[in-house]
Amino acid sequence: MIKMDMFFTLLLISAVASVISPRVILQYHFVELEKTWGEAQNYCRAHYQDLISIHSAQQMETIRSISGVNNEEAVWIGLRNTWLWSSGDPVNFTNWNPGQPNNAHGSQHCAAILSNSSRWHDTSCTENRSFVCFSARRQYHFIQEKKTWFEALEICRKNYTDLVSVHSQKELEEIKNISGITAIWIGLYRNVWHWSNGDPAPFQNWNTGEPDNVGNDENCVGMWIRNPSAGKWKDSRCREETYFLCSQVKYILVKENKTWIEAFNYCRTNHTDLASIPNATAQTEIAELAKTSSGGGGVWIGLRRDRLLGFWFWMDDDESEFSNWGDGSKGDPFSDHCGMIDKEENFTWRFECCSTKLNFICYKV
Predict the structure, then answer these.
(1) pTM of the full predicted structure?
(2) What domains does the chain contain, in order, with CATH numbers?
(3) Helix 37-47 crosses helix 260-270 at what angle (to 10 degrees)?
């Protein structure tokens, strides 16, 4: 059967203070395979994070538009049994059809969303339907307080991870409309244009005529948002004050020995995913965690080899070009190999048989 994977990005906003508003980047994946609710949940947890949970009318309309494109009568969402979300999220928004849920014949314990009305109804969990999964990419913190670039950098590093870095058009699309403010600091600065976390900057998105380094004094970079130039960059004087965007990822070392697939399932069930390593900063942080793992050898990360085509990929679809493979450590193509960070080889990446049981590192956004 053919899987039609259409992902849509949404900013899930949860304000925690008048100054700081964290935003989790969610991607929705419509899967045009008909499965029971339980099978759909297993599929989402294996390939993404979980069946979708819905917390606002905006999310609901996005889900409806995804399924409506394909003229689906109804698609599974993550609501079940005593009406809890399968992801563990609290139920703070509902949109039941009138008279629903009615638990007809005492056997309707799972929820589907009607594509023509956005309304929910309960139905038998054993029916076969298409479904919508979600995955969480990154968490951003938009700081609604004007600071110089270096003050912004200090705040991000003290409270989160760093000023935001942008490595692809996909990442740019995630943040370019993140606020009604017209411009924000990002982590790029003039050191042959490197990111503040130490990454090189092969991807760039300068506005027309930029960088122009007026007065030889424009060494930091801002990004236009929510205007015709949204997503475009401009060099500016670092002492200017504007709003800014921090990024954050939390890594968790699990000191239990599991196979790679067991570790993968554990991370997706309890956190977000097995750890990906997109840059040198993440490599350093994960290496520090790995030092404290139980036993010798390696620690599982989210790298997997495609057994058909032989290439390596991150399970969370990370597209960064950062690499830290040890010499001769990628193994033979077409083998059942998974990626680990090796404590005994200076924390370089190496392959290991996926059935080996190791500690592992998850991340949570």
Answers:
(1) 0.55
(2) 6-135 (3.10.100.10), 148-248 (3.10.100.10), 250-364 (3.10.100.10)
(3) 110
